[in-house]
Amino acid sequence: MNLIVRIGVALLAIATLWASAEAHAADTIVGSWRLLSWVEVETETKAVRAAFGDDPVGVITYTPDGRMSIFIANPKRKAPAGPKATDAEATDLYRTIVAYAGTYSVDGDTVTHKIEVSWNQTWSGTAQKRRIEIKEDHLTIKTPPIISPSSGKESVHTLVWERIK
Predict the structure, then answer these.
(1) How far apart are CA 140 and CA 147, in angstroms?
(2) CB atoms within 10 A of CB 53
(3) First to last CA, the chain
């Protein structure tokens, strides 16, 4: 074999291995995950707080065809007094939930959520990048500094999820 053919074969082998690793990384995230904890650290003060308390409830789902959805709620949410929430009740309900859906892609230890629909219209149409780590049946997702939907302050959020079996 001449040198050019050998180089071509080597590059093809490397590209195939890289694509296989990418597909495997995406496969490991596929499934539904239950929220165990959500901690946010304010970037300015370094104050730490458990977003939505010590026992937030939530589910995130990644499908094999590249779709995702997330739903997180404060377990202390109060139902409206009547069939239609008052303005104050609606405000409280809005502030005690995070929900969006769209597509996702995985690149190494980063997942990008391309949000199509969201509880917070400012997120619709955006791409949200998150660091991920999977160890056994636990998925840790960490944000870069973002404006917290619950506190309104710039914070880094770490969410720990457990695979739903």
Answers:
(1) 19
(2) 13
(3) 51
Q: Which residue matches tokens 């995130």?
A: 60
13-to-3, 6, 7, 16, 120 alpha-carbon distances in Å: 15, 11, 10, 5, 44
The H or E element containing residue 132 is: strand 127-135
Enclosing H/E stretch for 97: strand 97-107
pLDDT of residue 63: 97
Q: Encoding tokens for residue 127?
A: 């791409």
Other C-beta atoms closer than 10 Å to the C-beta of 26 total 17
- pLDDT surpassing 50 at residue 90: yes
pLDDT at residue number 22? 40
Provide, for the chain, the percentages of residues in helix, strand and coil under a 3-state DSSP scheme, each rounded to the nearest 5. Answer: 20, 45, 35
Size of the chain, expressed as the number of residues it contains: 165
pTM of the model: 0.80
DSSP H helices, 30-122, are 87-94
C-beta separation of 46 from 36 below 8 A: no
Q: At residue 124, what are phi and psi to the nearest 5 degrees?
A: -60, 135
pLDDT digit string (tens) for 4-51?
655 544 444 444 444 433 444 556 999 999 999 999 999 999 999 998
